């Protein structure tokens, strides 16, 4: 019934110490963290030797797309296969993007809950808003009541998921009322469409056209616009998949102004560069097509540095996988290549290699960026993201000396390629514990369909604390408590008007 992890270096976001950890597998909780507590270990305890290893909170991937219909395909990892891959890579929770069904948020969430019934690790959802009307306004409250505390606005994918500024502003305002965190996919969708048409006109129809049609300036513009509109409406903002210098500079400037903006780089943006989209083999080049695109090497370098300095806060994957057959839909026209790359299994190892082994991050910084910061942003800390008594027993054991090579031939995702193919990593997750159950050990998965729990995310998380008292450089009209000027001869003012139907 109990697991006693013995002799490891327990690493949390704020400290690390040689400690034993005692876990109750039945309740799925950590019950004790301390020195050597051999004397107190209850019967029915399995001892796990963690000498010379690091014992850390399981990874939380705040950005995935499992079983998602997108661009005429459906991502090939469902909740079971994607989560099994996650467990094999040391991730014990993820937050997936539920999409509305025909713009209906409530139907969308129902659908995603069904998809997630096969789960084998813990999970939660963000909800996308793809249209604005009175029903959206009402439904957002129902969604929050069901344990979702973030809404995503796509500023790209014109004609599909994209919203315009008016829709986004209304959605932001509603997020503020409900204590939910607005998130943006920040690219100027109109300009992307123009760029795509231009590429086709010039005869650039291969995957390189994808990169050329959505340059970083369009990401910077949309990031800056979303940030300014969030300040205007008075809400915090979470920018997903920050892929460029232009976008990260907008995040940095906003944070300097005191605005509450979280910037999320993804593993592909940190570790890869765009040259792969010029590969002479179409199938290879198409593997790397995602949006915003993987950029030139200097962007990756800047993103790694920004992450190491806390300008960007946490690392996700945007795991959205399509097989080579699915990608082939865009053979004659890059606009039809389903966008997305893998990462749910590789994130922990690639971040360890590129950030910790390179000296850019300490192991505590690593824990913050891969686990704790997501738990805090989505208001489930210290239940998740911490090794401490009372926290969920989502724990990984990492051997910093074990070397391995990433390959599609050994990964657990259903995708038939791997964008990190051949990458050598020093440091390996040798054990993953999910809610007190060992789900990955000795290179073997031991996962059970349906054992994963939905984790409700409460509204009004830390990003909302004291927010109304904050002054930003962009002044809200409401902050002045505007009163109309009484003018002689003008009609008396009536009741103020509500912007939306009340519930
Ligand atoms: N990122 C990507 O290319 N696919 C998934 C959808 C999204 O996050 O934009
Ligand atoms: Zn996106
Ligand atoms: Zn995404």
From TrEMBL:
* UniProt keyword DNA-binding present: no
Using the record for this protein, list the coiled-coil segments as residue ranges, or answer none.
none
Q: Where is this region: Disordered?
A: 471-503
What does the record note on quaternary structure? Homotetramer.
Q: Whose protein is this, by species?
A: Chlamydomonas eustigma
- What are the Amidohydrolase-related domain coordinates in residue numbering? 54-439
Q: Does the keyword Metal-binding apply?
A: yes
- Stated EC number for the protein is 3.5.2.2
What does the entry list under GO cellular component?
A: cytosol
Q: Which UniProt keywords apply?
A: Hydrolase, Metal-binding, Signal, Zinc
> After translation, how is this protein modified?
Carbamylation allows a single lysine to coordinate two divalent metal cations.
The processes (GO biological process) annotated in the record are: pyrimidine nucleobase catabolic process
Q: Which reaction(s) are listed as its catalytic activity?
A: 5,6-dihydrouracil + H2O = 3-(carbamoylamino)propanoate + H(+)
Could you cite one Gene Ontology molecular function of this protein? dihydropyrimidinase activity
What family is it from?
A: Belongs to the metallo-dependent hydrolases superfamily. Hydantoinase/dihydropyrimidinase family.
Q: Which cofactor does it need?
A: Zn(2+)
Enzyme class (EC, first level): hydrolase
This chain belongs to which protein, by name?
dihydropyrimidinase
């Amino acid at each position: 019934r109990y697991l006693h992890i013995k002799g490891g270096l327990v690493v949390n976001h704020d400290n690390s110490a040689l400690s034993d950890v005692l876990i109750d597998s039945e309740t799925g909780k950590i019950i004790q963290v301390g020195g050597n507590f051999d004397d107190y270990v209850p019967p029915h305890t399995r001892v796990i030797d963690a000498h010379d290893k690091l014992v850390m909170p399981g990874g939380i991937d705040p950005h995935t797309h499992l079983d998602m219909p997108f661009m005429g395909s459906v991502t090939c990892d469902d909740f079971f296969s994607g989560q099994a891959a996650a467990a094999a890579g040391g991730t014990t929770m993820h937050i997936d993007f539920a999409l509305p069904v025909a713009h209906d948020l409530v139907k969308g969430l129902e659908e995603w809950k069904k998809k997630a019934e096969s789960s084998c690790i813990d999970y939660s959802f963000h909800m996308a808003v793809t249209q604005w009307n009175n029903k959206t306004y009402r439904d957002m409250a129902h969604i929050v009541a069901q344990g979702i505390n973030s809404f995503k606005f796509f500023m790209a994918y014109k004609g599909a998921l994209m919203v315009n500024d008016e829709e986004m502003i209304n959605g932001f305002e509603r997020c503020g009322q409900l204590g939910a965190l607005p998130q943006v996919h920040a690219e100027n969708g109109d300009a992307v469409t123009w760029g795509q048409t231009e590429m086709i006109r010039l005869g650039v129809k291969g995957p390189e056209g994808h990169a050329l049609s959505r340059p970083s300036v369009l990401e910077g513009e949309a990031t800056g616009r979303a940030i300014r509109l969030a300040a205007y409406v008075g809400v915090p903002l979470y920018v997903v998949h920050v892929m460029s210098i232009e976008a990260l500079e907008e995040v940095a400037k906003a944070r300097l102004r005191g605005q509450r903006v979280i910037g999320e780089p993804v593993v592909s943006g940190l570790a890869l560069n765009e040259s792969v989209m010029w590969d002479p083999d179409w199938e290879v080049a198409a593997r790397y097509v995602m949006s915003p695109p993987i950029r030139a090497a200097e962007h990756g370098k800047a993103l790694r540095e920004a992450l190491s300095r806390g300008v960007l806060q946490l690392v996700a994957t945007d795991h959205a996988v399509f097989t080579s057959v699915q990608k082939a839909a865009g053979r004659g026209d890059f606009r039809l290549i389903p966008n997305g790359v893998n990462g749910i299994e590789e994130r922990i190892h690639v971040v360890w290699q590129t950030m910790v082994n390179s000296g850019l991050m300490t192991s505590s910084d690593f824990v913050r960026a891969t686990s704790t910061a997501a738990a805090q942003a989505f208001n489930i800390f210290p239940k998740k993201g911490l090794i401490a008594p009372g926290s969920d027993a989502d724990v990984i054991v990492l051997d910093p000396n074990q070397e391995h090579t990433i390959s599609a031939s050994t990964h657990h995702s259903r995708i038939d390629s791997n964008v990190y193919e051949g990458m050598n990593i020093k440091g390996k997750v040798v054990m993953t514990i999910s809610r007190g159950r060992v789900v990955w050990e000795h290179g073997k998965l031991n996962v059970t369909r349906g054992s994963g729990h939905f984790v409700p995310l409460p509204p009004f998380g830390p990003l909302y604390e004291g927010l109304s008292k904050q002054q930003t450089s962009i002044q809200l009209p409401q902050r002045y408590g505007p009163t109309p000027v009484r003018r002689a001869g003008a009609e008396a003012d009536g009741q103020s008007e509500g912007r939306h139907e009340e519930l």
